[in-house]
Amino acid sequence: MARKRTADSLPFTPAVFRWARDRAGYSLDDAAKKLALSKEILSDWESDDGTFAPTVKQARDLAALYGRSFLEWFLPAAPELPEPKRIPDFRLYRGADDPSDTRELLDAQLWAETQRENALDLYSEIGEDVPQVPENVFATIESDVDAVAATVRDAMQFPIEQQAGLITTQQRAGIPNLIRDKIESLGILTLRKSDLNRYQVGGFCIAEFPLPVIVFTSESPNAQAFTLGHELAHVLLRQSAISGAIPRQGGDPDVRRVEDWCNKFAGAFLIPRQTMLARHPIPNMPREAIPDSDISELAIYFGVSEHAMLVRLVELNYVDASYYWDVKKPIYNEEEKNFRAFGRPKFYGRRYASSLGTLYTSLVIEAWNAGRITNHNAAEFMGIKNLAHLHDIREDFGT
Q1: What does R_g of the chain's alpha carbons equal in angstroms?
Q2: Given Cys at both, which of 112, 170, 271, 328 links 312, Cβ 3.0 to 4.6 Å?
Q3: Cα(284)–Cα(275) distance, rounded to whole angstroms?
């Protein structure tokens, strides 16, 4: 039910309602439908000369829909918010919307940039130098992916034995976190944004130095491992990018060469050539097909997805590319589309640490423990409202 505006009505600012809806990317029709309101009422709320005003509950519903703070409705004018730097779109699949126009994706980029600035500030607070990505790991698309992958593993102190041959499903499910920590050991901030896949984004990279940023999304653990490897490749190329699925053909040739190199690097990083050769010599001619059981056995050994395993087998000439594109890729695409994440961190506060990663969270805890920031500052850095969760995180980190 709509309430008429009176002198006693809460001082909501109609212009802020309009701004928030536009920023969230909703038309009047779409927003009204989601809020179970008439378009005329919503338009009236946004009008400086309107007759009606929302109730507190309705204003809170507006805030939730638009992703804004309820208190913003009382500002005298729309706030001036920073815009992120535009990251080149390297998504090549057909039929996708332009991500540059997706407000949620721009906000995700701004969030990642903010965490990077926060981390740089925290290094300054605790008096430590910002780690530098080793010069010897950088590459170009002309570089041999196997050689670069071996150099990166050496720089990370990540022998294949730490990844391959893990016995239990739980151990293999932990491989993305292991890889994430190894990437962060190179001086790369690695964040997780769970809803990127809603915009057909696998991940993105902000190649700003020092402290470049990789952001990945919620996928199956094995798919996360490949995405982390792919975005790491963009860092090595010093190339910021938004990444997504790659079609068999098409796309800008220059973009395609970069994405192909990044995918090949991810395969070489996760499935080192020499380790693969030690298990199975390359046949004289690529096979026309390969049994699912063989793909599965190798995928389990290396702790990768069957999808990534087959791509690597094609790259190493074990099997013909047409078997991947014509037979298996449609099946993998459907499986990945239908994947639903399961399980949550053991307590609520840990979800923030899972999103922000070990490197960032450790910086916050160290600055807090050293008295360089207050507990309220630490909570703000972590995006936490309940201070009890902050103490949970510190206890979980063992500090």
Answers
A1: 24
A2: 271
A3: 19
Residue 242 pairs in a beta bridge with 89, 204
Close Cβ partners of 114 (under 8 Å, ≥ 6 residues apart): none
Average pLDDT over residues 162-180: 89
Q: What is the pLDDT of residues 322-337, one digit of tens each?
A: 999 999 999 988 887 7
Task: Please list, residue by residue across 139-160, b when 16 or more beta carbons sit within 10 angstroms of its beta carbon and e when fewer do.
Answer: bebeeebbebbbbbbeebebeb
Gap between the Cα atoms of 247 and 240, Å rounded = 21
Q: What is the mean pLDDT of residues 336-350?
A: 57
Helix axes 387-396, 348-369, angle to 10 degrees: 80
C-beta contacts of 254-262 below 8 A and 24+ residues apart: 255/88, 255/90, 255/92, 256/92, 257/141, 258/90, 258/141, 258/234, 259/90, 259/92, 261/141, 261/145, 261/233, 261/237, 262/230, 262/231, 262/233, 262/234, 262/237
CATH tag, 3-74 = 1.10.260.40
Nearest to 13 by CA among 59, 69, 77, 56: 77
Q: What one-letter code names the amino acid at 365?
A: I
* pLDDT one-digit tens code per residue, 108-165: 898 999 999 999 999 999 999 999 999 999 999 999 999 999 999 999 999 999 999 8
Considering the entire predicted model, what is its pTM? Answer: 0.83
Q: What secondary structure does DSSP assign to 311-373, as a single string? A: HHHHHTTSB-HHIIIIIIHHHHHHHHHT-------SSHHHHHHHHHHHHHHHHHHHHHHTTSS
Domain ranges in the chain? 3-74, 99-337, 348-396
Compute φ and ψ for 381, nearest 5 degrees: -60, -35
